[in-house]
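A note on notation is needed here, since sequence and fold are reported together in a single record. The reader may check this reading against the record printed directly beneath this paragraph.
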Amino acid sequence: MKKLSILLLAGLTLTACSSAGDSTEGERDITVMVAASMCDLAETVAGEMSGVTTVCSGSADLVAQIETGAAADILVTANQKTADQIIDAERGTQLDVIATNELVLVVPAGNPAGVTGFDESMNASDLVVCAPQVPCGDVSSQLAELNGLTLTPVSEEQSVTDVLGKIVSGQGDAGLVYRTDANSAGDAVEIIDIPGAGEVPNTYPLLVIDSDSADDAEQAWIDAFTTGAGRQRMIDSGFTTP
């Protein structure tokens, strides 16, 4: 177990690509795995530090990678259920929940399919959602039930970034994504709020892997990601931070 350190958390996040910086002499390199919806933020932090490798993907995929032996020091998932898999397997310790997010409906600019909202008009279009085992898919199912709907998607994706990509590229008429991802698409999409979305937020737990506390290298990344400029970037992207 790593040496116990005092944790001061205020926010955090990562997602779906991979990046690394050169470490300076005497520093320990770390690998940070982050849910796809936070990838851009995590890679920005990695670019400002040395010795940090960022791995971004859907939360379920990240958990599967750790369970099959992939090296990781910090994990940020997009819901509690995936984080609990690591905790229950005694592979990591949760330090905090660093942010929340909510689902929205997006359509391509101009709304060519004439989707009127989170209603049956979605099912008359080419609807794209996350797969049920993915955090955004889990929330999609909960919101459908809350609104008395049955979703009939033409495609179920493994990450929220894949859903957004299909809408932006014109391969789908409507998609369910996080507000932060919708914001990142700018004028390429139109955002439609979902009734009750605030009642079913996605939470972002932060865990250290195979440890009960963060060491100095891990704490440096946590501080950079969740405080100061890092926290402000999360807020500007549309995350809600504690």
Summary: Residues 18-100+203-237 form a domain with the D-Maltodextrin-Binding Protein; domain 2 fold (CATH 3.40.190.10). Residues 1-19, 21-26 have pLDDT under 50 and may be disordered. The two ends are 28 Å apart (CA to CA). The longest strand covers residues 92-101.
